[in-house]
Every structure is written in C-alpha cells, then in structure tokens.
Amino acid sequence: MNAFTLYRRMAGASIKAQLRYPGTFALQLVGNFVTTLLSFFGIWSLFHRFGSIAGWDIGAVAVLYGLVNVSFSVAETLGRGFDVFGSEYVKTGSFDRLLLRPRSTLVLLLGHELRLRPIGRFLQGAFVLGAGFWLSPHVSWNTVWLLPWAVAGGAVMFLGILIGQAALCFITVEGLEVVNVLTYGGVEAGQYPITMFARWLRRFLTWALPLSAVCYYPALAMLNHPDPLGMPLWFGLLSPAMGFVFLALMMLWWRRGVAGYVSSGS
Questions:
Q1: Which residues neighbour 247 within 8 Å (Cβ) at sequence distance 6 or greater?
Q2: What span, in angstroms and rounded, lies between the C-alpha atoms of 17 and 132?
Q3: How far is the C-alpha of 215 from the C-alpha of 222, rounded, in Å?
Q4: Planar angle of CA 65, 76, 67, nearest 5 degrees
Q5: Where are the domains of the chain?
Q6: What is the pTM of this model?
Q7: 53 — phi, psi (to 5°)?
Q8: In this predicted structure, what is the pLDDT of residue 218?
Q9: Out of 14, 32, 234, 245, which could bridge 114 as a Cys pair, Cβ 3.0 to 4.6 Å?
Q10: For the segment 102-153, what is each residue's pLDDT rounded down to a tens digit?
Q11: Keywords on this record (predicted)?
Q12: What is the pLDDT of residue 258?
C-alpha cells in the first residue's frame, strides 16, 4: 500500500465516523458557517458607516476576507493531527508507535482526522469571496485563474504553521497557545489590507510568515488595485509560491525534530 492509498483509506474512515451522526454533523456545519459569517458583519458595518477606508471599499476587503478564510479552512481540515500532536502523541508517548510504522510520520498525522467541521468556514468564505468580486468594479477577469493558486498557497502556508507548531512540541511536550497568534491571529490579520499595519509587521507578514504573499498581493492582482506600498501587480502572480516555500521549511524543521525526538513515556 503506497502513501496515497493509505491516506485515502484513513481519510475515508474519518469521514465515515463523522457522518455516523448526520444530525450532529449538520448542526456543527451550520453553527460554524453562522459564527464565522457573523465576524464578517463587523467588517461590513464598519464600511457601511464610512463607505471606504484609506482607498479600500467593502468589495476589496471582502475578497481578502474570503481568500484567507477559504485557505485556512482547507488547512484546518487537513491538519488536525498536527493541531493535537502535543497532547495526543508526545505527552502520551503514542508518537513512538508511529515511528515503528514504515510510513512517513507526516502522512500518518495527516490521516489522523480529516475534519469536516471547517466546511462551514469554507462555504462562508467562498460566499463572501464571490460577493467581493461582484461588488468590486475593477475586477481583472483575465487574472481570476489566480484564485485557486492563491488558495493553494494560503492553505499550505497555514498547514506549515500547524506542522511547525507540532514540531515545537518536541521541545515543549505540549502545544503552546501562543502559536495561535500565527494561526487564528493570521486569519484576523489577513482580512485587512496590509497597509494598515506598522512597517515591521508588514515585513514580517510578507517575508517571514508570507500571509500577505498568499492573500493580499494576489487579491491586488485580481482586483487590478495598485499597491500603495509600490509593489508591482505582477508580484501577486508569483507570490503564492512563497506559501509552498514556507511549508518546505516547516517540513525540514519537522524532520529535524523527529531526528532528535526522545520519548516522553506515558
């Protein structure tokens, strides 16, 4: 059995388990959709009151909001095993059993649980994203092909954060809540134009944690919106690749953590 077949079977078992109680699943899906949609109404009320802020209208911000939420929901669906890695694997010593199996630990943790609850966030983000394109008057339709490329870059970037968080557990044993500054905090920051932040934070969110590279700059290219910071529009066509570079770096850190792992016992 190759890695893909193994993952497909593990994901299938996870989906079947979650669908055994369809009523509970439906309530979770609707609840996730509604609660995440309510957060957008706070942004909408702000623009409804002031019209536009620093040259940004509600349509452009809706595109940013939709991009970052769709990307995060994909990573949240795939990366549950890394999210609970410290408490369920390192602290209990269960990671030792994974090391005995002749398969990549990354594949095994990806197959820990294919969580369906974030589908609610995905649908809500896609709805807001579509509304943003509809409300934006200067959409460059010949660059809309960039949308799946940007979503893929954002998803692997957030997945890289989860892998990095899990790798940190080799040192801390349990996951640190401070890492949520990069996950949920990154989702919140990605919903707004990067020009709102201080220079040091803009540089961090572009070159260290490439959040703006997978969200802000692709959105500028699709909306044909000039960057107030002077970055050319063509940068947004290439910048989602930085999400894959970030994932590769986190995977290297993961391999280094596994190489130095000493069992914590039970």
A1: 156, 157, 159, 160, 163
A2: 36
A3: 11
A4: 20
A5: 3-259
A6: 0.93
A7: -130, 120
A8: 94
A9: 14
A10: 889 999 999 998 989 899 999 999 999 999 999 887 787 778 889 999 999 9
A11: Membrane, Transmembrane, Transmembrane helix
A12: 95
Residue 28 tokens, joined: 């979770």
Give DSSP secondary structure letters for 96-146: HHHHTSSS-HHHHHHTS----TTHHHHHHHHHHHHHHHHH-TT--GGGTTH
In eight-state DSSP terms, residue 232 is -
Place of tokens 């996870």: 14
Output the CA–CA distances (angstroms, integers) from residue 32 to 14, 112, 208, in the order listed: 19, 21, 30
- Lookup result for tokens 């949609």: 37
Looking at residue 5, its amino acid is T
Q: Of 143, 139, 140, give the one whose Cα is nearest residue 237.
A: 143
CA-to-CA distance for 77 and 39, rounded, in angstroms? 20
186, 246 contact by CB (below 8 A): no
Query: Is pLDDT at 214 greater than 90 in this prediction?
Result: yes
Task: Look at 227 and 251; give whichever has higher pLDDT.
Answer: 251
Block residue for tokens 């994909």: 74
In the structure encoding, which two tokens stand for residue 24, read together? 């509970």
- The separation between the first and the last C-alpha atoms of the chain, rounded to the nearest angstrom, is 30
Tokens matching residue 197: 């932040």
